């Protein structure tokens, strides 16, 4: 049966080329696509259709679904562990993952993390972790769009007994999921310093062969910068460029420690960059030079990083952080106005992922990935500027309805594509097991 949804009585922030705002707007969705957009009178054109689901926006704000361009979703069972631990990645997280991460943890963690994302208005996420097949299963079940990339490391990992075993896993994973409607499989060499030249080149060749994304942490760590400058006289970005593995399928996470020359390299290779402001601030990594990158026309999106690093998976928390931290850092309150921050969270993220022809804005022919924010809660009035309201007033509790690929997955602030009570119960039981291990 053809699915038909009519959303009316909402202000539409299209995020299209002209940044059109339609008050008292109407969107008509058929199956997985946005078919029509217009003013209130458009309702009359479709309201008598059979099997039509009508959603009253109740004067809320309808906008494109938000995009989380970098996370490690299934790390969520470890959230709030060792938050203030020095050199946490090498001394705490990697050893903890070796002890505890398995198929079950990744699947349970992914279901919980995806629930959090959907309930906060994230409709697409780009993931880097282990056992990505389990993440894909969870994403398909709960109906979220995922760019899911298998991790490659120069030591044994939870899902690979041999160093670089993630390469073989990634090939099998890509073959299995490459034609899925919601899932785009990819590959994720963890970082330059946790891979060899050979593994980086092989990962890149896999990405080229299958035309899938390759994502990597780059230019995030001081020791990473120092290593490549000392050993090769090159920055991490320049080193990757020398290897010839930067291209339009490449998604660079963090990119805090980059020079002007690095920015030119990233632009020349059409690399997409994910800005993880919350994680970088909490980890005291530094501030990404977003203004210089934007000036050069680099595609930039927003990410949360892992929920153990940034403690959240929602992009609504990241937008105000990006605005406030960069205004403070540059001592200029006029930079990065709200409309630009929302663009980073929607169409900007879509461009980073190479999906701006399908998602990121509310336009005819695009995928029906939209969210409705209610405006009745105390924090949502008055509204003089819709963009500023979303960036600086809204939070995830204002997300009322979420539609992904034409399917309603959140309605009246409740997850309906899965049983959250069971998902939460599984997470709590898993937390008890983790606690027993770390207390031994």
Automatic annotation (TrEMBL):
InterPro entries: Amidohydro-rel (IPR006680), Metal-dep_hydrolase_composite (IPR011059), Metal_Hydrolase (IPR032466), MTA/SAH_deaminase (IPR050287). Transmembrane segments: none annotated. GO terms for molecular function: hydrolase activity, acting on carbon-nitrogen (but not peptide) bonds. Keywords: Hydrolase. Gene3D superfamilies: Metal-dependent hydrolases (3.20.20.140), Urease, subunit C, domain 1 (2.30.40.10). Pfam families: Amidohydro_1 (PF01979). CDD domains: ATZ_TRZ_like. This is Amidohydrolase family protein. It comes from Clostridium tarantellae. The lineage of its organism: Bacteria, Bacillati, Bacillota, Clostridia, Eubacteriales.
